[in-house]
TrEMBL record:
GO terms for cellular component: mitochondrion. Signal peptide: none annotated. This is NIPSNAP domain-containing protein. It comes from the Eukaryota. It comes from Solea senegalensis (Senegalese sole). Coiled coil: none annotated. Residues 36-133 form the NIPSNAP domain.
Amino acid sequence: MLRLTSCFLKRGGAARAAQPCVRLSTGPQREHKTFYEFRTYCLRPDQNASFLKLTNEKIHLRTSHSQLIGYWSVEYGGLNQVFHIWEYESYAQRAAVRAALAQDDTWISEYISKATPMMTSQDNEVTYLVPWSNLQRAPQENGNPRLLMSVTQRTVSPASSCQ
């Protein structure tokens, strides 16, 4: 089934016009199935290297809470961005992970408090695997995912790119 819905998002308060958005669904909503959170962070250009170094050193604090599927940075196309994908068995698991992270003093003091000022924006999407996908896990180093900083070209519309 292919279903197209539209909505309007209010951004920046009532003074601004509502921004249109469109959601495309190719089937019924999945409830209790594994899903993936695709996160995009836009970084301050002068903080890109520092952010990647910090993340490489502290990613184990985050992966102790849930499964990291992949982590990428970009050198061509939409610059100063990192992308990461996290696996969850349910929305309840994701809520529990987010609550645990909010209470993890080490995560907050050693990573979040340092990483957040390096970012200009964050975005996340919930995605599901298509039936023909062949998901492979990230390589491991000392029991932790090895972060691969890959060169990728991605076409990004001006409205969604980092400013």
